[in-house]
Amino acid sequence: MSISHYSATVPVFKQMLLALSDVLKKGEEYAQQRKFDPVTLLQSRLFPDMLPLVRQVQIACDFAQSVPSRIAGLEVATYQDTEQSFSELQNRILKTLELISAISAAQLDGSAVKEIVLRPGTPKEKKLTVEDYALKYGMPQFLFHVTTAYNILRHNGVEIGKKDFMGSY
After folding, report:
1. What is the average pLDDT across 3-27?
2. CA 76, 77, 83, 87: dihedral to nearest 10 degrees?
3. Dist CA 59 CA 67 (whole Å)
4. Domain boundaries, the chain
5. pLDDT in tens, 49-108
6. What is the DSSP-derived secondary structure letter of residue 145?
7. Three-class SS of residue 126?
8. 44, exposed or middle or buried, with CB in 10 Å at 0-12, 13-18, 19+?
9. Beta carbons within 10 angstroms of residue 39's beta carbon
10. Contact predicate 141/9, CB 8 Å
11. Per CATH, which fold does 5-159 belong to?
12. How high is the mean pLDDT of the chain?
């Protein structure tokens, strides 16, 4: 039995984006309770050479919307990456959820797209089958950034656990 491209991606993106939204709420509440500037959390990193929380969320949203869009043969939405507050990140997540919710299983599973080309026309060009793109590139990238966002919050003392990371399934 095989699993559809839609089933392997969109429901997972939705589950994890909703969970990410919830841990961000807890992060914002934590900053308010402790009476420190929320920007402190938003700009926190796990290590100096890693991207801050705000950027981890932006990139997670980028992958959540670009993977199903590319597979469906749709134009990939571009965001300005200007979010600087928890509420702006929540709006980004909401916008991403709305975008991917508008993509049907038929659009992904019946797509004529058979190959995804990353960085076309550059020395880093890479051609992947749709399956490899979704499962070996897009999903791991998305999960890396969601996990890193979670870890930044947890590392900074936000009381979240595995149930918060997983969300409802």
Report:
1. 96
2. -110
3. 12
4. 5-159
5. 999 999 999 999 999 999 999 999 999 999 999 999 999 999 999 999 999 999 999 999
6. H
7. strand
8. middle
9. 14
10. no
11. Four Helix Bundle (Hemerythrin (Met), subunit A) (1.20.120)
12. 95
Residue at 139: amino acid letter: M
Beta strand ranges found along the chain (DSSP E): 115-118, 126-129
Burial of 168 (0-12, 13-18, 19+ CB in 10 A): exposed
For residue 50, the tally of other CB atoms under 10 A from its CB is 14
Q: Are 146 and 16 in contact (CB under 8 A)?
A: yes
Query: Which secondary structure element, helix H or strand E, spans residue 61, and what is its range?
Result: helix 53-72
111-148 in b/e form (b: 16+ CB < 10 A) is beeeebeeeeeeeeeeebebeebbbebbbebbeebbeb
The DSSP output letter for 133 is I
CB 168 within 8 A of CB 18: yes
Residue whose pair of structure tokens reads 């900074």 in the numeric block: 156
Written as six digits, the tokens of 51 are 């991207």
Nearest 5°: phi and psi at 124? -95, 10
